[in-house]
């Protein structure tokens, strides 16, 4: 029987199965198994968790998650070309890898997973931010996941962990800071990928908090924050005027100056404002 150790190098897998990365799918493959092992370890202890992986491609990170002892991995892949390569990994780890052909944006993973769940993925560039926003803003909390260990373009990673007042602070910073603890854990140079992208990447580790830091309704907060940062150089009384006729009064009640710009407002005050606007 095949084992993980007996599987061929990833470059051979790509050649055998014709897996040239496709730009249309946001694919950039990480072939260094030392790096994928480091990412898997960053996710923490995996032996008591189900792991959700989005976009496994030829399966480098998939192998590392299993090698690090993941109880079970559910890998969601929309590129049918990758299925035979992933099937070879499944054969090497009977009962521990479920590969699902699906579009992650249209797929609900919860029926395939048993808690605790850790999401670990080199997210395709073209869907990463969308998926993260979805995972950070479900209507109910705690979410289905315990932690997210995700690779993004370095610029996106910086936005997730940014503090108020920095140029990277924005919508993702607020959504991650509201109900979770996020930290940047490692950098990945562009040269580590095939094909090599134009930018460096970074891995962010996000732990779900038991409860939100401040009261707010997810959709209401998302709406306020999206409106505020759509024109981040505008004063809030201008960028949010479409949300309420008395927006200046609401801003003052939330301890926000109407002339403030969004990057100066912390999570607590955005939550307070969204609560005021949600209640009308």
State the main characteristics.
elongated; Rossmann fold; 9 strands; Helicase, Ruva Protein, domain 3; 280 residues; 11 helices; 7-stranded mixed β-sheet; alpha/beta; two-stranded antiparallel ribbon; 2 domains
Structure notes:
This protein is of the alpha/beta class. It has two domains: 4-208, Rossmann fold; 218-279, Helicase, Ruva Protein, domain 3. Helix content is 35%, strand content 18%. It contains eleven helices and nine strands. It has helices at residues 10-17, 33-42, 60-67, 83-92, 128-136, 154-161, 171-179, 218-230, 236-239, 247-253, 267-279, and strands spanning 29-30, 50-54, 72-77, 97-101, 117-122, 147-153, 180-188, 193-194, 201-208. A seven-stranded mixed β-sheet has the order 4-3-2-5-6-9-7, with helices on both faces. The longest helix has 13 residues, at 218-230. The termini are far apart. The mean pLDDT is 95.
